[in-house]
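Predict structure. Input: Phosphate ABC transporter permease subunit PstC, 349 residues.
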Amino acid sequence: MMPGTPGIMIPLPNNLIIFFFEYIRHFGKTVMKIPVFRISLIATASFLPISLILLVVFLVIYSWPAIEYNQFHFLWTNDWNLGNLYGNPVEVDGHQIMPGAKYGVWFLVVGTIVSSVLAMLMAMPVAVGAAYFLSEGIRKSWSGPLSLFVDLLAAIPSVVYGLWGYALLVPLFGNTIFPFLTDIFSFIPFLNGSPGSGYGLLTSAFVLAVMIIPLISATLRESIQMIEPALKEAGLSLGLTRPEVFWHIILPKLKKVLIGVGILALGRALGETMAVLMVSGNALNYLPGNIYAPISTMAAFIASQLDSALQDPTNMAVEALSEIALVLLLITILVNISARLILWMEKVR
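Output follows.
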C-alpha cells in the first residue's frame, strides 16, 4: 500500500511470491534435518507406549508385597477378607497383615470377564444393525439427526447409566423380566433357578451393552459410508438384495474395523466402574449360579473396597487392590494382543 494513499494496494511481484514459498519449503527441510526436532517427534510418538509400560511397572512395584504374599493362588480362590482392622498386625511369611486377612479374587475375575463378554454378545448385533439402518436404511435427511442422537448416547456419564439401571432396570428386571425368563427357559442351564432381586450379572451386562452400543455403531456407520459405491452397485446388479449386499460384501470388508472397535468396546466394558457398581449386587466371595445372580467386577470392587482398605495400618489391603488393578490391566493387554494375532492370521491366510 502506498504511503499517504490509503486503500491503494501494490501487487507483489510473482518472483517475490515464489521466493517466499521456496524459502518456507527450504526452512522446513532444514528443520527436519535437526536432530532435536526428530528426537522431539520420536518422544511424542513414544509417549503412549512408554506411559503404558510405566503404569505396569508402577503397579508391579507398588503391589509387590501383595504379590509375594498372595502368590498366584489368589486368582482362583474365593476368600477375600480384610481381616480384623481393629486388631494388632500379625506376621505371616515375612509380611505384616491384619488378623484373618485373605485376598482371593477368583469371583472378581469371573464376574468381570463373564459380564463383559455377555455385554458384547448383546451389543454387537444391535450396533451392527443400527449402523446399517442409519447408513443404508433411511433417507439422508433423517440419518443425520438420528446419528447425532446415537452419538450423544456415548457422551452420557456412566453414573447416569448406573442411576438409570438402579431406579428403572433393577425393579423391572427383578419383578417382571427375570421371573418370566426363568419360567420360559427353565430347561436351559444358567437361565433357570432363582430370578433374584434384579441386581446381578444380566442387569450389569445389559447396562454395559447400552453403554458400548453407541461406540460400536458410530465407528461402523462411518466405515460403511466409506465403502466404494461401485461394490454396492455391483452386488445389486447381480440380483442381491440390500441386506444381502450388506452381509456378503460390506461386512467382510469391515472385518478389521469390527475387530478394532470390538476391542475398544470390550476394554470399555472391562474397565467400567460406577454403572456396574450400582446394579451388580456387589457379591463377595460368590460365583454366579445363573445369569440373574449378583456379581462383582474388578473395577467396581476396587472402588467399593478402597475406603475400607485404607483403614489397614499394614497397607497390605491397598496393595492387594493394586494387584487386582494389575490383573485387570494385564487382561486388557492380553485382549488387545489376541486381537492383533487374529488380524495377523487373517493377513497370513
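The beta strands are 90-92, 95-97.
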